[in-house]
Design a protein that fits this description.
Layout (H helix, E strand, L loop, with lengths): L8 H43 L5 H22 L11 H27 L2 H8 L2 H13 L5 H5 L1 H13 L6 H24 L9 H23 L3 H11 L3 H25 L2 H23 L5 H24 L1
Helix pairs in contact: 1-3, 1-11, 1-12, 2-3, 2-9, 2-11, 3-8, 3-9, 4-12, 5-8, 7-13, 12-13
Protein name: Sugar phosphate transporter domain-containing protein
Subcellular location: Membrane
Main location: membrane
Length: about 325
């Protein structure tokens, strides 16, 4: 019986190199999708809410959640992108519903703030999420970090204070809504860790979105009809005036789902540290692009404040990594 010839080392090396290149290309494509989806939905939100005359942030959020509900169902049930994780009890369903309501509040608040604030300042305030996360984690779980970690949060807050003073388009109500949305986003992440921490109740982000989205739609629909009573009339009127109105709404809603999907995939195929670094850079990219598109005035003080905030976020992430 003839033995098979030994594998050629150069051939194996070539196959390994080819596989590595494909993996790197795949991850790069995911990051590009994540950036374009996140920045795209942010800029389209701003365009629709401030420049287009579509002044209905609650209804817009409901459109996003409707797209997330439909596309999550298709992705998980039909395309099997991730295994379906069933809800196992009423208690677990109540926890998911609670998270959904908090999530609604954060998204609606963020969309309302975009009516009044430039995207650049909105992103500066949004960068303070780690500060609120640390505060809620301490208040709700009594989890303490090293003093160096808390010290890194000082420039995060100080930067926003400085940026606020140097922001030509500062609007108090918009600022309050933006801070509230940022705090709600941090509260949701801490609450999620508490409510769905047991092994039997853990859901990956795609399954969680599948169950949260329909609940969010049920919450937002009556809210939109009560607080934005002329939404259907104005939307139909805008649709008749601007032939691309419906295209923009559908594209915006699809991007909202794409941002969630790509965030999940980037998290799955890279490390938490990589995601954090990419997230910080994403905010800066969004600021630069928004300034070019919307031509909102910026000052040296505002740029300095935002830079300080981002530097503080980077320092906070590094401190958490070293002292955990």
């Amino acid at each position: 019986m003839r033995s098979s010839p030994p594998a050629n080392p150069s051939t194996m090396s070539s196959l390994s190199s080819s596989s590595s290149k494909k993996q790197a290309l795949f991850i790069t494509s995911l990051i590009v999708l994540w950036y374009s989806s996140n920045i795209g939905v942010l800029l389209l939100n701003k365009f629709l809410l401030s420049n287009y005359g579509f002044r209905f942030p609650i209804f817009l959020t409901m459109c996003h959640m409707s797209a997330c509900a439909i596309l999550s169902y298709l992705s998980i049930v039909f395309f099997k992108m991730v295994p379906l994780q069933p809800v196992k009890s009423r208690h677990q369903f109540f926890k998911i519903a609670t998270l959904s309501v908090v999530f609604c509040g954060s998204v609606v608040g963020g969309n309302i703030s975009l009516r009044y604030l430039p995207v650049s300042f909105n992103q500066a305030v949004g960068a303070t999420t780690p500060f609120f996360t640390a505060v809620f984690a301490y208040l709700m779980t009594f989890k303490r970090e090293a003093w160096v970690t808390y010290a890194a949060l000082v420039p995060v807050v100080a930067g926003v204070v400085i940026a606020s003073g140097g922001e030509p388009g500062f609007h108090l109500y918009g600022f309050i809504m933006c801070i509230s949305a940022t705090a709600a986003r941090a509260f949701k992440s801490v609450l999620q860790g508490i409510l769905l921490s047991s092994e039997g109740e853990k859901l990956n982000s795609m399954n969680l979105l599948l169950y949260m989205s329909p609940i969010a739609v049920l919450v937002l629909l009556p809210a939109a009809l009560i607080m934005e009573p002329n939404v259907l009339e104005v939307t139909l009127s805008l649709g008749r005036q601007h032939k691309y109105m419906w295209v923009l709404l559908v594209l915006n809603s699809t991007m909202a789902y794409s941002a969630n999907l790509s965030n999940f995939l980037v998290t799955k195929h890279t490390s938490a540290l990589t995601l954090q670094v990419l997230g910080n850079a994403k905010g800066a990219v969004a600021v630069v692009i928004s300034i070019f598109i919307f031509r909102n005035p910026v000052t040296f003080v505002g740029i300095a404040g935002y830079t300080m905030t981002v530097a503080g976020v980077v320092a906070y992430g590094e401190a958490k990594r070293r002292f955990r």
